[in-house]
Write a structure and sequence with these properties.
2 domains, Four Helix Bundle (Hemerythrin (Met), subunit A), 10 strands, 4-stranded antiparallel beta sheet, rod-shaped, single chain
Length: 310
């Protein structure tokens, strides 16, 4: 009886021990399986990039577009000014284009990663720095170009001044040469301008009594030649008194000015022999004041006298 009870207790103990072993194994298996699942979830979570809010990408995209628009507006001027001063500027437009393309690629992704947006943000900052540098360099180039333009304009003004001075000297030389030649070849002396009244050819000083003006002068030449002598009589009102429409005309002085003459006298002179020349002028009305008689040869004034009528 006692043996039977002992055997029963032994069997019960064995069963309980086996159940304990089974429960322990089951718990161990579940614990191990749970650890593996947690590890797998951690790896999956680590491998899966976090979802980036659209607002972050939109904000970066907006900054990028503003920067690119500002950059594009300066690229053309940068290219233009870079050509004007190639040796003084280091404008690397390829770097701008590279940054622009890289940022556009990062921002156009359907599901951008956080690290990609961080890179895009950093590159946008770099791009903005390049734009600022480009602006400063463009200002430097514009200042240099302004200095060059001012220098060229100053050189152009100086060149024009030299040309004008050269032309002036040339004209003065021609004038001086003509005057010297005229004075050496011909000279006028004993100039006289007389006002005559009525038919009796009496001299008068009254403008109201004057019928005509008669002028005379002595011409002396250092050589035998034929020449034309131009006579100009200027009235008190500044107008030239003309003999007739077909006997008057215009000539060019040694200074290059056009001048109307009253009459032209053709004469033949012998070397060293004086020759008396005279002329007469008739006007519809004679004004009170000073009348000026001027004698020209080859555009050079060789004699002058005045007559006053009251």
């Amino acid at each position: 009886m006692r043996d039977t009870k002992s055997l029963s207790l032994l069997l019960l103990s064995s069963v309980l021990f086996l159940l304990s072993i089974i429960l322990l194994c089951t718990w161990g298996y579940q614990y191990y399986h749970q650890i593996q699942q947690d590890k797998t979830k951690a790896e999956v979570a680590k491998a899966t990039p976090p979802v980036v809010p659209d607002s972050t990408r939109d904000s970066l995209l907006k900054i990028y577009k503003v920067t690119i628009n500002g950059l594009d507006n300066r690229l053309d001027s940068a290219s233009y000014y870079a050509d004007s001063l190639k040796g003084n500027l280091d404008i690397n437009l390829k770097e701008f284009y590279r940054l622009r393309d890289e940022i556009a690629t990062l921002l156009q992704a359907q599901t951008p990663k956080t690290e990609d947006l961080d890179i895009a943000r950093r590159k946008i900052g770099e791009l903005q720095q390049r734009v600022t540098q480009l602006r400063y360099r463009n200002n430097d180039v514009e200042n240099e170009n302004a200095k060059l333009r001012a220098l060229l304009e100053e050189m152009s003004r100086q060149t024009r001044g030299i040309e004008d001075n050269s032309k002036l000297v040339e004209r003065e030389n021609r004038t001086l040469t003509a005057k010297v030649n005229a004075l050496l070849s011909l000279s006028a002396a004993n100039l006289n301008l007389t006002a005559l009244a009525n038919n009796e050819q009496q001299e008068t000083t009254e403008a109201g009594q004057t019928e005509k003006l008669v002028g005379s002068f002595t011409l002396k030449s250092n050589m035998s030649s034929k020449c034309d002598i131009v006579v100009v009589v200027v009235q008190p009102n500044g107008q030239v008194l003309q003999k007739s429409a077909w006997e008057s005309g215009s000539f060019e002085t040694a200074e290059g000015a056009k001048k109307i003459y009253s009459c032209k006298l053709r004469c033949e002179t012998a070397k060293g022999e004086p020759k008396l020349l005279n002329f007469s002028l008739i006007a519809d009305k004679y004004l009170k004041g000073n009348y000026s008689m001027q004698i020209y040869h080859n555009g050079v004034l060789i004699g002058k006298t005045n007559k006053t009528l009251s």
